[in-house]
Amino acid sequence: MEYTRLGSTGTTVSQLCYGTWRFGRETGGVVETDKEQAHELLDAAWERGINFFDTANVYGTPNGKSERYIGEWLEDRDREDVVIASKVYFPFDGWGEPGPNDSGLGRKHIRAQIAGTLDRLDTDYLDLYYIHRWDEDSDIVETLRTLNDLVREGKVHYLGASTMAAWQLTKALWKSDVEGLERFEVTQPLFHAGYRDDITDYLDVAADQDMAVCPYSPLAGGFLTGKYEHTDDDDPTKFEGPEGARGSLSDRFEDFYLSERGWHVLDELRAVADELDATPPQVALRWLIEQPDITCVPIVGARTVDQLDENVAATDISLSDDQFNRIVSARYADDGERWGHRS
Q1: How confident is the model over 25-60, as pLDDT tens digits?
Q2: Which residues have a catalytic role annotated?
Q3: Does domain 3-188 have CATH number 3.30.1330.20?
């Protein structure tokens, strides 16, 4: 495993981050990843050199269970060796029915949630604290001042922003500058090889401001693993995949990941994988790691140790300039027009 500096911060992280949104999450009454499985996966990630772990206060059923699993795992680790990120914004149900101040980015909610997060993680501080979404109902200056205080108090080292428009990110950075407040150092957008041009402006801001980019869903919800096959050239939503795979169970899969562009990119990922004796997900992850203008640390959410091994192997390959650019070009038709995307 190789390591990289997280944007302009002084913290060094593994080239991959391990995401824990499935920890303790119930789907159809079944826990996707229970505590024993979670600890096995955390152990495996750690043994393979991953030192960067991503969670959120709302991960798990009830909310907070993912953080609690990680906190119990941390008991056998030197806290200073581990980089932990969590988030705040969404309604939190881990204390019962959410009340009127149990969501958003107002001071009261942030203060309550950081206290709960630190308690569940059994730690004195977070390395990175994201706002999980932009809050239209809270003044961004109040949010930034509250987060700034958390940094000053030593409860948080760095601030991050997940999933917002380029203008919102720019506004927050400008407000931090003029108010003399801690700024967002890390972003967490939806970003993968089949989706790049949809957030060009956002990534340009990150590059200009030397912000790290930690994409979630870097394999497009499993689409870029290559386990799905296109069955109708005239309809990008028609596919076949393994029985019970997430793509056959989720409307989000069709809305966010299936597109003409995606299928063309997947074909190129397969071709490059064949050339490198690698797999499509390894090539897709490596394409992100090798982004030329930003520090890019994909968040992988492997459900098994075998999947994790496959993901980690992305750090052992490299793409030629031609291979990298072919993946970029796969998003475009011969006439230069970008293939369509559903969202």
Answers
A1: 998 899 999 999 999 999 999 999 999 999 999 999
A2: 59
A3: no
